[in-house]
Design goal:
Elements (H helix, E strand, L loop, with lengths): L1 H11 L12 H9 L10 H5 L4 E3 L7 E4 L9 E10 L2 E7 L6 E10 L8 E6 L4 E2 L4 E8 L18 E7 L13 E2 L7 H13 L6 H14 L1
Helix pairs in contact: 1-5
Length: 223
């Protein structure tokens, strides 16, 4: 009963898991972005002062620093892999939708009133839709030399598995270019991501108890 309650709580909010048994967001973001900051994710924004430039506009290679909220007491960090427009980016991060899971090039949407990326919604791979809750952020930390670095699983960093990965063939496709392709047919295409954005904006909290229980069962099946 207690285990079921814990799973139910986890389904209500996307939150990193404490502990060293699974890959955490911090070492993943550090390796992929090259930003040499350490400690809990919630400290990265202040640590970056006088070391890295900070701002509120997305750029490829920048680290998006999330504020702690609810059970996500240590905050979160993700790396921008592609800027789609002023309100949409693709990100790479770990330990978000499922403990230890790596999600590469999934959608994040600015839902702030001012358009300053202070509030975002993030793709939830197990349910193939945008996350139900909005997440406050500090802003973006810009590395000195923006470059996305490959992440290779390392048992020393904790267990990990890839839930989503997008194969981007061009950093700056033309207007007639084909949409990006995902590496696995079972994973959602970018076109589905965009429909999910409209769904999330229209009904940000329309999740029934049945939906939540279904999320719990999906997450449990991946453990």
């Amino acid at each position: 009963m207690m285990r079921w309650a814990a799973l139910l709580l986890a389904s209500l909010t996307t939150t990193p898991v404490l502990g060293a048994t699974v890959l955490q967001c911090v070492p993943y973001a550090r390796i992929v972005s090259g930003v040499q900051l350490y400690g809990d994710a919630l400290t990265w924004w202040d640590q970056a002062e006088n070391h890295y430039r900070r701002g509120h506009m997305p750029r490829k290679g920048a680290v998006l620093a999330f504020r702690p909220v609810g059970p996500m007491v240590l905050g979160h960090v993700a790396v921008v892999s592609r800027v789609l427009d002023d309100r949409r980016v693709l990100i790479r991060h770990a330990n978000w939708s499922v403990p230890g899971a790596i999600e590469e090039d999934v959608l994040a949407v600015d839902v702030s009133e001012e358009g300053d990326w202070s509030e975002v919604r993030v793709w939830h791979s197990p349910t193939n839709q945008m996350g139900a809750r909005s997440n406050p952020t500090f802003g973006f930390i810009y590395p000195d030399r923006p470059q996305l670095r490959a992440f290779r699983p390392d048992p020393a960093l904790g267990a990990s598995t890839r839930l989503a990965s997008l194969n981007i063939t061009s950093d700056d496709p033309g207007p007639d270019a084909a949409p990006p392709r995902r590496t696995a047919a079972a994973q959602p295409r970018l076109a589905l991501d965009l429909r999910a954005v409209r769904y999330a904006d229209a009904t940000p909290s329309a999740r029934s108890l049945r939906d939540i229980i279904a999320d719990v069962k999906r997450d449990a099946a991946l453990r």
